[in-house]
Amino acid sequence: MAKITYKHPNGTVTIVDVQAPNTVMRGAKLNNVDGIEAQCGGSAQCGTCHVYVDEANTLPLPEMDSVEDDVLYGTACERTEFSRLSCQLPVGDEIDGLLVHLPEAQS
Amino acid sequence: MASHAVVVVGAGQAGFDTACALRSRGFRGRITLVGDEPPGPSYRPPLSKGYLAGTVAAEEIALRPPSFYTEQDIELLPGDRVASLDRERRTVLLESGLRLPYDNLVLATGSRPRSLPVPGASLTGVLSLRGLADAEDLRLRLSGPPRRLVVVGAGFIGLEVAATARGLGHDVTVVEAQPRALARALTPTVSDRIVAEHRERGVRVLLGREVTALFGDAEGRVQVMELDGGERIAADLVVVGVGVLPNVELALAADLLVGDGVVVDAQLRTSDPYVFALGDCARFPSPHAGRHVRIESVQNASDQAKCVAAAVCGEPYAYTAVPWFWSEQYALRLQIAGLTAPHDETVTVGDPAEGRFSVFCFRGGRLTGVESVNRPADHGIARRLLTAGTDLSPGTVREPGFDLKRLPRTPTASPSRTTTQERLSVHA
Ligand SMILES: Cc1cc2nc3c(=O)[nH]c(=O)nc-3n(C[C@H](O)[C@H](O)[C@H](O)COP(=O)(O)OP(=O)(O)OC[C@H]3O[C@@H](n4cnc5c(N)ncnc54)[C@H](O)[C@@H]3O)c2cc1C
Ligand code: FES
């Protein structure tokens, strides 16, 4: 179980508890957090689950693989060095307290 | 708008997303979502892929947990059907006898598989795939010892089922009437590569062949398929994937304008201003095609939902989203950005033999779409370029060493942009 914080572009914050083996994307879906579309349902195809991991994050996130890296070229909002696909971020104890920022638009 | 009532017919991707988009926009009125599939709104793509293979669980198919509907104050009526609409009184009648008034009605009735017009098509073991119940049935039949599966139709669903079943160790044959697979959807370069992959994996793919009849055993279970020319193939399971028909019966009975789909305008309004239609069942004017089209994809259902919600909230915008689609077969990740047909010129980047390439399609020198196989960056960037209306000439793409990743990023236009709309010529 991990607490994940989703920060919306307008500053609103939603904090939810997510169980393994979900992803940060599914954590949002299961808890009705707006702002992540995930049209492809988590198969790293659509780029509509784009999030920015908080700049100050020190939690151990998995390395980005080449597919995720490629899909991030297509996001609706600018990609930055903090960009990730939330469907590629598995939830576990080690990321308890993760803060992600939601982009202005997903598609 | 407090007393405003919206009734959504069909609790699939389009209906569900419309309800969500209304609440996200701050709509406070009553939302009723009527759906005849008992499990409630669910996600179809895994039904021919991970769910069938057993790697995606049934819980993951639900679009949201049950709590969502209470929290969002969306009245979900699963397991019920809208039987008729009375446009004059603005009410719908449900099969359960319930009558619901509406201020706006949304038709999100989707589509259903076409059946095979040959003798024997109703034998046991002849299936089609649309909902969770169909997928559950097929999954059970594929979970046992190897079977002889014949897939009729080399479209996306047929080929995904073939790939999944082959992965599970079944003996698979695909029969397609057209001379090539996915002929309406893809360029030959991509469809040939997909067929080659199936064949390399041991699937028998018969192109340009028609099924003429199916024969069963004494218990009425399918046993043999007959093809044109008389060839017979043994089959203990047949999956029919020969396309879908839009569910337009309600609209027809209510005298709405219907073609191949419920005909709507750029804001997805039907010929009745209080009734909208979207998703698989709707035929809309596409600025990317320059004519009315009907598109069967999650993207189309989801993005159209935002447009309908905006119109209901009185801030309408024209539907101009760039269509995109994906399919997964074995390790091939196929993605299509834009509407590639019709095109008059193609440029291939990368190597089809290696299974990593993109086909750029042009019409009159303008990019209409990109088909990518295992090149997800090309797909994503192409979607952005098509959204922004950026010009990319065939000459540029043909240059040695061309790489979309090196193009400077162009800002993406907002969804309310109507520029392409003005160029639109519409004929139903
Ligand atoms: C097996 C499968 C795999 C797919 N894979 C992909 C993919 O990989 N990528 C992709 O983009 N798309 C895919 N699609 C297509 C995508 O799922 C559809 O385009 C999308 O679901 C369309 O949404 P919709 O709401 O218009 O229709 P649906 O999701 O079909 O929903 C319509 C609903 O309305 C109900 N209904 C109809 N009439 C009534 C009535 N009178 N009263 C009440 N309810 C009614 C129907 O039963 C249905 O539940 C796939 C489809 C299938 C079947
Ligand atoms: S959900 Fe589509 S890329 Fe993550």
Q: Could you characterize the architecture of this molecule?
A:
The complex is a heterodimer of chains A (107) and B (428). In chain A, 12% of the residues lie in helices and 21% in strands. Chain A has 107 residues and is of the alpha+beta class. With 428 residues, chain B is an alpha/beta fold. Chain B has helices at 13-24, 50-53, 67-71, 132-142, 156-167, 188-200, 249-253, 298-312, 376-388, 394-398, 419-422, and strands at residues 5-9, 30-35, 74-78, 82-86, 91-94, 99-101, 104-107, 111-113, 126-127, 148-152, 171-176, 204-207, 211-216, 222-227, 232-234, 237-240, 244-246, 258-259, 261-263, 275-277, 282-286, 291-293, 324-329, 332-338, 345-351, 356-363, 366-373. In chain B, the strands form seven sheets. Chain B has a five-stranded parallel beta sheet. In chain B, a hairpin with a 1-residue loop joins strand 18 (258-259) and strand 19. Chains A and B meet through helix 1 and helix 2 of A and helix 3, helix 8, strand 23 and helix 9 of B. The structure holds flavin-adenine dinucleotide (FAD) and FE2/S2 (inorganic) cluster. The site of FE2/S2 (inorganic) cluster has 13 residues of chain A, from loops.
